[in-house]
UniProtKB/TrEMBL annotation:
<dbReference type="InterPro" id="IPR050678">
    <property type="entry name" value="DNA_Partitioning_ATPase"/>
</dbReference>
<dbReference type="InterPro" id="IPR009744">
    <property type="entry name" value="VirC1"/>
</dbReference>
<dbReference type="InterPro" id="IPR027417">
    <property type="entry name" value="P-loop_NTPase"/>
</dbReference>
<dbReference type="Pfam" id="PF07015">
    <property type="entry name" value="VirC1"/>
</dbReference>
<protein>
    <submittedName>
        <fullName>ATPase involved in chromosome partitioning</fullName>
    </submittedName>
</protein>
Length: 234
């Protein structure tokens, strides 16, 4: 089953939110999801421990560079989707996870710092493609965007990505209170009360369109064979 990793070499790019939104949307469709929480902050693990849970989602946070590819491979045999939230640095866990991913999603905010962090992951993907001798499909999702206006910084990032012929998703993740509240209260967007949280319906629409676009790419990507950069390097 598809393995989808989220990576950006700069923290705070909206990576964990993008990963959790996809997981909860997929689970809401009745699919089994395994999330590998490789981010040192463990926000998804903390979300999973909240009283309000999402049926069909399991979270793994005990991960090492030597074990992650085998763990991902095993999870893909029992889950409909495997989602990996990687830490905001370049290391062997990141490299090994990317090497067995069917799709790598790179979240980027409208800032030059985020764009540079994303560029580091794109460079790493190119290096890994030479090692594994196969393409690693990847795309960019713009995050924390303003629903009403496109800022000059966001426009600059869009122009930069377009000039590099990078696949940019049509659906950005808009800045919404409902997305932040998931980490406070647990569960998915379906569990949030529109009377208590503003903009829930808009958030649900945004998340649904975003998830559909990610899944279309992941399902159509060629399936990756097992690989471990750590073991090859040792």
């Amino acid at each position: 089953m598809p393995v989808i990793s989220f990576a950006n070499a700069k923290g705070g790019a909206g990576k964990t939110t993008a990963a959790l939104l996809l997981a909860t949307e997929v689970a809401a469709r009745g699919k089994r999801v395994t999330i590998f929480d490789a981010d040192p902050q463990k926000w998804i693990s903390k979300w999973h421990e909240l009283p309000r849970t999402c049926k069909g989602i399991s979270v793994v946070n005990q991960i090492s560079p030597a074990s992650i590819t085998e763990q991902i491979t095993q999870a893909s045999e029992t889950s409909d989707y495997v989602i990996v939230d990687l830490e905001g640095t370049e290391n062997l866990i990141v490299a090994n996870a990317l090497s067995v991913s069917d799709l790598v999603v790179i979240p980027i905010q409208g800032s030059s710092m985020d764009a540079r962090g994303g560029a580091k992951i794109l460079t790493l993907i190119k290096k890994l493609e030479k090692i594994v001798r196969q393409d690693i499909r990847h795309c960019v999702v713009l995050t924390r965007s303003n629903a009403a206006v496109t800022t000059r910084a966001m426009k600059a990032v869009q122009d930069f990505l377009s000039a590099q012929n990078i696949d940019v998703m049509m659906t950005p993740i808009v800045e919404r209170a409902a997305f932040r509240d998931l980490f406070e209260f647990g569960g998915g967007l379906a569990n949030l009360d529109p009377k208590m949280v503003s903009g829930v319906e808009k958030a649900r629409e945004n998340a649904s369109l975003y998830a559909a676009e990610v899944l279309e790419r992941a399902i159509s990507a060629p399936k990756k064979r097992w690989y471990n950069v750590f073991r090859r390097a040792s």
